[in-house]
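Summary of Year 1 activities. Much of the first year was spent building the evaluation harness for sequence design. The harness presents a backbone, in tokenized form, and records the residue chosen at every position. We chose the following record to illustrate the format because it has been used consistently in internal testing since the harness was completed.
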């Protein structure tokens, strides 16, 4: 079937037995066909590589987003800890000043 299809374009000695020369038309069509096949393979390869790269970028962006959310949660916890620490420090300082006042009352010098 392939030889019948190619015989429509002209004589191709590489495919048919009783042929001595390939015509210009069949040479052109065969070149176009080979170019289309090679172009399709290269296009598929490029598409496949770009898809893999895009998928990897999506995974990295998702990971960055997760890390950013985790970072925000950690910052909130640190802020809460800092507020509690400040409150505790203020209470300790207040208690220290009260102790100093009490000590001054019992030990006037």
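For this record, the design step produced the sequence shown next.
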């Amino acid at each position: 079937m392939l030889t019948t299809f190619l015989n429509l374009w002209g004589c191709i000695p590489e495919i048919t037995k009783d042929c001595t020369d390939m015509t210009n038309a069949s040479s052109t069509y065969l070149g176009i066909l080979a170019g289309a096949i090679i172009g399709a393979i290269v296009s598929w390869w490029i598409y496949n590589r770009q898809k893999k790269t895009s998928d990897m970028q999506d995974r990295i962006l998702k990971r960055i987003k997760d890390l950013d959310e985790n970072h925000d949660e950690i910052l909130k916890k640190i802020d809460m800890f800092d507020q509690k620490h400040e409150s505790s420090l203020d209470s300790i300082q207040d208690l220290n000043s009260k102790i100093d006042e009490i000590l001054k009352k019992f030990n006037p010098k």
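The mean pLDDT is 86. Quantitative recovery figures across the full test set are reported in Table 2.
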